[in-house]
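User: Working on a comparison across species. This one is Insulinase family protein from Burkholderia contaminans. Can you predict its structure so I can line it up against the others?
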Amino acid sequence: MSVRRLICTWLSLCPLIAGTAMAQPVEVPGFTHVRSLGGIDEYRLDANGLTVLAVPDSAATVVSFQVLYRVGSRNEAAGTTGDTHLLEHLMFKGSQHYNKALGNALNSYMERVGATFNATTSMDRTNYFGTLGRDALEGYIAIEADRMRNLLLRPEDLASEMTVVRNEYERGENSPFTALFQQVMATAYQAHPYHHPTIGWRSDIEHASVDKLRRFYDTFYWPDNATVILVGDFRPNQALGWVRQYYGGIPRAPQAIPAVTTEEPSQQGPRRLVLKRAGATGSLIIAFKGPRALDPDAPALTVLGLVLSQGKSSRLYRALVDTTVATQAGAGFHALRDPGPFVVTISLPLDAKHEQAEKIAWTELERIKTEGVTREDIQRVLGPYRADQVYQRDGVRATSARLGNAVSQGDWTRFVTELEELEKVTPADVQRVARKYLVENQSTTGWFVPEKS
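Assistant: Here's the predicted structure for Insulinase family protein from Burkholderia contaminans:
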């Protein structure tokens, strides 16, 4: 069954397809089949606990191979912020058996076979991925497996990448909205590591060392802390055989992967901050403490965000943009592994009044808390959301990316069940979570006030 047809089944957009038989999971020596749902088969490599998610697509012409490590900026502490991101960069500098000196580096191989590849770092995970033809898959699996435990990590590589990372940091600093969001998160989360930005704080980046990065690598880069995701044109028996061949000899982590045990204390009152510097327009962010992605309240918070901000008929758009008080207005729940924020964002025109925009935003939030929403409101926003999900899951790379997001949130089956959960949300649910989470004493408000250069 093709990925597109699977998407239709998952999103209940093509009811005739829902009864189509899914391919049965395969039996491969060395693997244990864990579970299957929505055309996705989960396996565990017996030798070391590596998780594999297989989504074969007979209609695809390429395959996406992703390795997701369950380590992100949430696993960092003061003095190590930015290590996850720096290590992501250094993973492209070569491993023991695949490097530039040997003439078989990752870049050279992927360019030769016409593949695309990249990596990203987030709060909850780091992932490495490539999209390529089936005939080139074995070679890519071999390279990824080698750099899981045999990364070179040389001082000269760190020195060269520091320039790249500094430039990336500066781009974020030069974006007023990005800088404001970082300050809001740092103010809202004072104990939990969501406090610090994914790219890290400047002083920690500048003091990064190979020894420190090696310790970080040796702590988190192990098969039992990773998930391999295969989507597209591959033969499950063959691909799993390659995974066993190249990953099977890697041992489990010698010690337990450190867990994040810090919980954000209850907020006792509203917090505010103002960021003033050169800029053309102002912006406003209100962040509320929310639950984790797997919390039963998460679907209702997602719907709440859609009702507030999806489309020109949404509550915030009509109240703020149609009235020219703001140029943009959005809201949404950040579904993270640990409790994440529900965020309202507003972009202001030149010389706009932050006080006015904030007052209007609060009025709309209070309206939902007192008056609620209708079933028609929910259906109106879920229609475009369904279509957006089809677009975001169209193609093997897009499907792999969304599946990886669900893995990082704590359960890959959310990829399959997400829309079903949203469809079950009632108007009473939306009003209840608005009253529970959109509370002033649990809010952090940030203003960006532009000043002349």
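For your comparison, note: The domain at 271-451 is CATH 3.30.830.10 (Cytochrome Bc1 Complex; Chain A, domain 1).

User: Helpful, thanks.
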